[in-house]
Every structure is written in C-alpha cells, then in structure tokens.
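Deliverable D5.2: sample structural annotation.
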Amino acid sequence: MPRRDTLIVALLVVSSLAAIGGVVLAATARATAAFGWFAYAPLSGQVFTPGIGVPPAVIGGLALAAVGLLGVGFGAGWLVSARRRDP
C-alpha cells in the first residue's frame, strides 16, 4: 500500500501548512477601524469605545488552523494504526 501512504503523507504536509497558515493569518489580522462618528450634538460629549469584536480574518484563520489540525490528527492516526497492523 505505498500509494496510500503517499497520500497520507501528502495530507499531513497540506494539513500542516494549512494549520500554520491559519495561525499566521489569525495572529497578523488587524481589526477594522470604526469610522462614521462626527460628534454631533447631543452626543458630542461621549467618547466612542468599540466593543470587543473579532475581525473576520481572525475567525477564518482559526477555522483554517482547526481544519489543518484535524487533518494532521487524522493522518497521524492513520499512519500509527497502519504501522501497528503491518507485521
């Protein structure tokens, strides 16, 4: 079954790259700036403080990292179980 092992190793490589790319994307994503407040009366005395929001790039990066880690776990489990089955 060398072809199957090659596919699993390819899955491990692609999944590892996806996990690393997702972590990098999530770590380097910047929050979007909040524009549009012109301080008209009667709210001109209040300061706008944006809430805690997660940018879409961070969510996408974490999702990509999660899918990559699932692929790595699947591939590693497959290789370990195949190694135990072979005499």
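Annotation notes: The mean pLDDT is 82. The chain has one domain: 1-28+55-87.
The annotation will be released with the project's public dataset once the embargo ends.
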